[in-house]
Design goal:
Number of helices: 13
Number of strands: 11
Distance between the termini: 21 Å
Order of helices and strands: EHEHEHHEHEHHEHEHHHEHEEEH
Structural class: alpha/beta
Bound molecules: beta-D-ribofuranose, calcium ion
Strand order of the largest sheet: 3-2-1-4-5-6-11-9-10
Helix content: 25-40%
Number of domains: 1
Length: 313
């Protein structure tokens, strides 16, 4: 699989990048960054250092949009740490981003090889929406587009009802939805993460027992998220939204439940970022496939297996 990953790289994005980097059936072709969890330069730094740790420093990283389409940027630094990576004082990467803008990369690669690339989006959809404004047919040029975004059960993590990526740039999410179709675009929301991708204390012990640099890194960078998950979300450990979305892209057979539905993202202040799922038989036709459950054990086996490996050199 030829893969492009668009990411606002912080703790869980970094774990997702490790999965993509370590999966032998996946050719990680490019990483594009976007402002979200952290300001753009930090997202880029975190992507670079994660790829270097995985022995994949040769994967080109391109910077994209540094703010949402129509709103000021609100980051998730209280969740992930000021540096987005648990404030561990990680060393700066050796590499730099490539010249060129992420939006051009999303457009050019897909046009050069129509139907070959899979795109995994792990942040606000700003880059993809900006690309769609230039090429309305772009989604059809990808083999498939997977997005970690939304909360189809209306249980939010940034507001009562909204998931962070949808809330940060709801206009971008809506642009993507208006061009999407369920055969081409799959959304994996925060409901999946909360139910099927929580690293319980037992999972955390097992991760550390792997005694590999990647497993230890994945655990340590999530230390701030662990506090947040306990105090705000009431979970029994840190959850891994971006890694479970990446796992679906790498192994679609992990999906346990899905539905095709028409989704809109609320733009008004009170419901900002809320996923509005229209399941009426007389409603508009479905525009996305929503993953609702993932096989938890299979996801965790994939995670443990890929993080146990030595970094590529
Ligand atoms: C999403 O928001 C971010 O904080 C995470 O990286 C993930 O992409 C979960 O709601
Ligand atoms: Ca993310």
């Amino acid at each position: 699989m030829k893969l492009i990953v668009d990411t606002d790289t912080a703790s869980d994005d970094a774990v997702a990048l490790l999965l993509a980097a370590r999966d032998s059936g996946t050719e990680l072709d490019a990483v594009t960054t976007v402002a979200g969890n952290v300001p753009l330069p930090l997202a880029t730094r975190n992507a670079l250092l994660t790829l270097e740790l995985a022995g994949m420093g040769g994967v080109p990283v391109y910077e994209g949009c540094d703010r949402p389409m129509a709103r000021p940027l609100s980051t998730a630094q209280p969740v992930h740490g000021d540096d987005g990576m648990g404030d561990l004082g990680l060393a700066d990467p050796a590499g730099r981003p490539q010249p060129g803008h992420a939006v051009d990369v999303l457009l050019d690669r897909a046009r050069a090889r129509p139907g070959e690339y899979t795109l995994v989006s792990l942040g606000p959809l700003t880059n993809l929406a900006a690309a769609l404004l230039r090429d309305r047919d772009l989604l059809g040029r990808y083999r498939h587009v997977y997005c970690m975004i939304g909360a189809p059960d209306a249980v939010g993590n940034i507001s009562a009802t909204a998931e962070f990526n949808a809330w940060v740039d709801p206009e971008a999410a809506q642009i993507v939805l208006s061009a999407a179709d369920p055969g081409r675009v799959t959304w994996i929301g925060w409901d999946v993460s909360r139910r099927d991708a929580v690293m319980t204390p037992g999972d955390q012990e097992r991760l550390l027992a792997l005694d590999s640099p990647l497993a230890s890194f994945a655990h340590r960078i999530n230390r701030k998220v662990a506090e947040w998950a306990r105090q705000v979300s009431g979970l029994s450990g840190y959850d891994l939204p971006d890694p479970v979305a990446m796992a679906v892209a790498l192994r679609p057979g992990l999906v346990a439940e899905h539905e095709k539905a028409h989704v809109r993202i609320a733009l008004g202040d009170e419901a900002r970022g809320q996923s509005m799922v229209d399941r009426r038989l007389t409603g508009p036709p479905p525009n996305v496939t929503l993953v609702r459950r993932v096989h938890e054990k299979g996801f965790k086996e994939l995670l443990f297996g890929l993080l146990a490996q030595e970094a590529r050199v």
